[in-house]
Amino acid sequence: xxxxxxxxxxxxxxxxxxxxxxxxxxxxxxxxxxxxxxxxxxxxxxxxxxxxxxxxxxxxxxxxxxxxxxxxxxxxxxxxxxxxxxxxxxxxxxxxxxxxxxxxxxxxxxxxxxxxxxxxxxxxxxxxxxxxxxxxxxxxxxxxxxxxxxxxxxxxxxxxxxxxxxxxxxxxxxxxxxxxxxxxxxxxxxxxxxxxxxxxxxxxxxxxxxxxxxxxxxxxxxxxxxxxxxxxxxxxxxxxxxxxxxxxxxxxxxxxxxxxxxxxxxxxxxxxxxxx
Length: 276
Fold this sequence. Notes:
The protein has eleven helices and eleven strands. The chain is an alpha/beta fold. Helix 1 (10-20) crosses helix 7.
């Protein structure tokens, strides 16, 4: 049996549903669901054989894990957003609190790359950031996941679209989260898992209603419109296969993270499992 860890967000539950519900006696799966920063911390420990994690965290654990070609969240128009309470004049430079959804998240990495001033990040679970901002006009925060679809109606406004800034400056996709497998897993098993994960994704598109109860049950936001928007935004052609465009974007983000001192230079190991 293989333990896999991923988030309860709709894009992950959409991706993994058919895999974890498979009745293949030769490939039994046990799922473990955690917030993204919990997953990043567990990856540092090498706890799970297969895990979802932020790309920023992956750059810290390349000695333990290798990226699958299938399962990543990356694309265009889907990056983290720096926001504040409406009618507030607070900026990143003047904010008394800067909330991020985890110190090892790609959201925090992007903020560090594009901030024009130093900041002291306060980590907070992603779904607790908006309530915190609504009660504090002197704070700013970086929101991710389904929060990007609801922040304006909940009383917040945009300061900077960090993904848009990345796309404008680099011309590349913005890598957000990935699926990685431990390097101590035999390669034939890792490739088999990658193939089955791709099959799970293909089945999800063929039978989108079958898994909706599972997706809704685990999602923080139960609004079906928000859930479908979340899946449409974060599950795309690059989720099925990173391809050359995905590889280049990830390699550039790693380079920028090293240059900024966010991560140390990783060991000379391949980034990707291959056979995409």
